[in-house]
Amino acid sequence: MASIFSKIAAGEIPSYKCAENDKFYAFLDINPLVKGHTLVIPRREVDYIFDLTDEELAEMTVFAKHVAEAIKKAFPCKKVGMAVLGLEVPHAHIHLIPMNSEKDMLFSNPKLKLTDEEFEEIARKIREAM
User: Fold this and answer.
1) Of 3, 71, 98, 106, most Cβ neighbours within 10 A?
2) What is the C-alpha to C-alpha distance for residues 55 and 44, in angstroms, rounded to an integer?
3) What is the DSSP string of 33-100?
4) What is the Cβ-side half-sphere exposure of residue 91, based on CA atoms within 13 angstroms?
5) How far apart are CA 103 and CA 118, in angstroms?
6) How confident is the prediction for the chain on average, in pLDDT?
7) Which of 38, 99, 46 is nearest to 63 (CA)?
8) Is 37 a catalytic residue?
9) Phi then psi dihedrals of residue 62, to 5 deg
10) For the whole model, what pTM was predicted?
């Protein structure tokens, strides 16, 4: 059975798309730590990021870099942090999180509650910055 992230990348479940190509898909985390918190996934369903081939992992990292550059333009911050956890959804993914301090990357922080309009605006800003 396809993971929720595979269904999102296939357009079967709605998402706030930020970027995509034939191999990867970037969309907003629906429980963001900060505005601009984005997930990058491979379209190929792989549970563990280190089960990707070397080539896929390299390509995913470069794709994530381009998304991170757009996030930084759209949401000025000191850096965009990158985290790989991967226990909550059985599909490899990278979290890209705008940071002004390392505390912005604490997953124990309260999540933002945003409206559909706010999510749409954030995704639009990132897409335009691409």
Assistant:
1) 71
2) 13
3) SSTT-EEEEESS--SSGGGS-HHHHHHHHHHHHHHHHHHHHHS--SEEEEE---SSSSS--EEEEEES
4) 19
5) 23
6) 96
7) 38
8) no
9) -65, -40
10) 0.96
Phi, psi (deg, nearest 5) at residue 38: -125, 145
Tokens of 35: 């505005």
Cβ burial, residue 50 (10 Å; 0-12/13-18/19+) = exposed
Please provide the DSSP assignment of 2-33 as one string.
--HHHHHHTTSS---EEEE-SSEEEEE-SS-S
Residue 119, SS3?
helix
CA 57-130-122 angle, to 5 degrees, is: 100
pLDDT tens readout for residues 90-120: 899 999 999 999 999 999 999 999 999 999 9
